[in-house]
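User: My collaborator sent over this chain with a note saying "see what the structure looks like." That's all I know about it. Can you take a look?
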Amino acid sequence: MEKVHHEQVAYYRFEQWESLKHGIFTRYGGKSRAPFDSLNVGGMRGDDLQAVKQNHVLMYDALDVNSQRASTVWLVHGVDIVIVNDPIDGRKWHALADAMITDKVDTPLVMRYADCTPLMFYDPVNSAIGLAHAGWRGTVAGMASRTVKAMTMAYGSKPENIEVGIGPCIGPRRYQVGEEVVEAVQLYFGTLNGLITRDTHDGTAYFDLGIANTIDLERVGVTKIELSGICTAERTDEFYSHRAEKGQTGRFGAVISL
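Assistant: Without extra context I'll predict from the sequence alone. Here is the result:
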């Protein structure tokens, strides 16, 4: 990924998409005060809602996308996917879901993160995009591959044409998980190799979300994948981390638009 500065804010973009408007924003350059400092785009964390609104405007301005058609969902750590054609009048979010897809131009898809995995999808052949949110529950339920399948059904996309960017999330050195997660990983992937590592001293398990979503995508035929490799828990200087900051933090934004 490459880092882009726009006035006071900064965001990361995937190098494979030079002409596609998209960005995963850092936490700085916004209007929120501690512990949400400063580009917090999560409105349900206790932050001043006016500051959150201003932070959204800063994101859209940085990418030069249409804020009036921005669309989002209420994240629930599931695998439901929404097809977005237009914003919903009188409501900011479309549904309880964790992924959105669209083939409409000038229709930004927007989500919020603080350790879970941002997944961006682009089909340059059929001109369609997607944005998904995958924590451990979504990952072991196939959020990544389900989004690919949804684009295939909705837009005729072929997996070999879909390009995916896996953004900053909590990394394998910091994402300690319980045995119920280990069991879920084994059940979905059929293996723990490369996905779960054990501490050599106490045997505790650590889960690699980035690699897990990569494998999930490869299994359905996606070959063009760019993995950021940035750990949010290790980089709280740039990103919010629910785990590292013990829940007292904001949410960083991801935006993609045709």
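A starting point for your reply to your collaborator: The two ends are 19 Å apart (CA to CA).
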